[in-house]
């Protein structure tokens, strides 16, 4: 194994261990010494890759965000119609957010550990950007009424994040009800068809 491969392996090990521990006990419940011991690396190796525990958490959060964005994109791409793509992507986001690991890392500890502004910047680069792109296309093709997209994207993003946090405290059956409510909410945003000309 080359030195570069060894460095990448160490980094991946640190990320995997940190993700497991942060998901299980939260950021505050995991110490740096434990992260190093569980990873089987030295503290120097950790500091070679990350500036500290917060930087390691940021890398874990970014990884989780990318995975959720991937699930959303995969669900959307399975549909042919742009409107169906939006709805499928939103449903996939809520389903991903119902996962305890995603909730803990992305929705609970993310803003608490990194601060609202840094967390929002990461969210903007993944989830909100994809949502904004989809909404922009739907406004352009007349599926949604002409309107500024930025506030709509943030309202929908906030609603889905809140729904995912609520699902953490509710019964598993509530996921289907939440997705159905989201579907109705999205359908209510659609432009009314023009009345027939007489």
UniProtKB/TrEMBL annotation:
The keyword Transcription regulation applies. The keyword ATP-binding does not apply. Signal peptide: none annotated. Residues 8-68 form the HTH tetR-type domain. Keywords: DNA-binding, Transcription, Transcription regulation. Residues 31-50 bind DNA. InterPro entries: Homeodomain-like_sf, HTH-type_TetR-like_transc_reg, HTH_TetR, Rv0078-like_C. SUPFAM superfamilies: Homeodomain-like. This is Transposon Tn10 TetC protein. It comes from Nonomuraea coxensis DSM 45129. The gene is tetC.
């Amino acid at each position: 194994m080359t030195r570069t491969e060894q460095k990448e392996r160490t980094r991946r090990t640190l990320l995997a261990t940190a993700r497991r521990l942060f998901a299980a006990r939260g950021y505050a419940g995991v110490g740096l010494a434990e992260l190093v011991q569980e990873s089987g690396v030295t503290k120097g190796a950790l500091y070679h890759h990350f500036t500290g525990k917060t930087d390691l958490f940021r890398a874990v959060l970014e990884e989780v965000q990318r995975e959720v964005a991937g699930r959303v994109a995969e669900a959307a791409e399975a549909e042919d119609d742009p409107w169906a793509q939006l709805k499928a992507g939103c449903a996939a986001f809520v389903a991903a957010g119902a996962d305890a690991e995603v909730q803990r890392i992305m929705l609970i500890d993310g803003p608490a550990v990194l601060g609202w502004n840094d967390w929002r910047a990461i969210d903007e680069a993944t989830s909100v950007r994809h949502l904004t792109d989809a909404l922009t296309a739907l406004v352009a093709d007349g599926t949604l009424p002409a309107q500024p997209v930025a506030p709509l994207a943030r309202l929908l993003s906030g609603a889905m994040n809140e729904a995912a946090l609520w699902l953490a405290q509710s019964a598993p059956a509530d996921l289907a009800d939440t997705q159905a409510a989201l579907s109705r909410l999205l359908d209510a945003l659609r432009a009314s068809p023009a009345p027939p000309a007489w």
